[in-house]
Amino acid sequence: MPCSTTRPLPRSRPHISPRTRPSATQPEYRTTVQPQLNPGFDNPRRLVEGFYTWGGRLRDTNTGPGGTGIAHCLPEFIPDEAVRVFGVLAKMDHLRGRDRAGLSEGLAWAWGETTAIRPFRDVNTRSQFTLFNQLAVEAGWVLDWNQIDPHVFAHARTVAIYRDPDGLDALLYPALVPAASSPERKVAERMEQVVAKFARPRPPRKMDALDHELHAALQRRAYRLAPDPPFGPPHQGPGLHDRGVGL
Fold first, then answer.
1. CB 245 within 8 A of CB 152
2. Which CATH superfamily is domain 73-240 in?
3. For the whole model, what pTM was predicted?
4. Contact 150, 247 (CB under 8 A)
5. Can you tell me the distance from the alpha carbon of 11 to that of 226, in angstroms, rounded to the nearest whole number?
6. Which residues pair with 177 in a beta bridge?
7. What is the pLDDT of residues 104-154, one digit of tens each?
């Protein structure tokens, strides 16, 4: 494949329980967490509307994560690669009906693939957040970004380009909270903080520290350690760097 290594597809998971699907008793999560998007909604264009004329257009130049020597998908392969990835998601019913492990694995795979493709000049990360938060909600889950260090998550996305999405899975898994068990008021408060802090500048982190934290997350995932309680205060990472609520 021109845009990725031979990253495996997420394994198929059996239907666990009707509780993993959004029900008629959960409509508030469609509006509180993320409005339901219609198929024609052009999110990348809307994100830069009024600022740039190229919003929503596929990029036509080569790019790569800064300072890494890694290349994103070549522009000429972007359309076919996007069809491939979203075709797989469609065959998996957009990850509906999965338990926490299955959803985390599927989100990590798709997030890694779309990171490698990087279809737009800018707002790729913000578009991904809109898309994958929405997929989680549609599957009956909420992502608690308070549990994820934004720098470590960005590092895991880069690692997924050239190796595998296991680091993304390790970070997403403990942050998934069943929507039915999350008080609407608390979810609304946390998501308002996400919006407020999404683009907040943060001190840079050293690569060895990011590697160490990502390795620790992989170990926690391997040993199936219980996640922290959902929607608590932000974690404080090494050097008191805020492990806040967004990238």
1. no
2. Fido-like domain (1.10.3290.10)
3. 0.74
4. yes
5. 22
6. 142
7. 999 999 999 999 999 988 878 888 888 898 899 899 999 988 888 889 999
Pick the closest to residue 158 from 111, 225, 91, 205 (CA basis): 111
Amino acid, res. 120: F
Ramachandran bin of 97, using left for φ above 0, alpha for ψ from -120 to 50, beta for the remaining angles: left
| Alpha-carbon 186 to chain mean position | 21
Please report the pLDDT score of residue 28 as a whole number: 36
Burial degree of 98 (CB within 10 A; 0-12, 13-18, 19+): buried
Biggest CA–CA distance in the chain, Å, is 49
Radius of gyration, CA atoms only, the chain: 17
| Three-class DSSP labels, 182-238 | CCHHHHHHHHHHHHHHCCCCCCCCCHHHHHHHHHHHHHHHHCCCCCCCCCCCCCECH
Q: What is the rounded average pLDDT for all residues in the chain?
A: 76
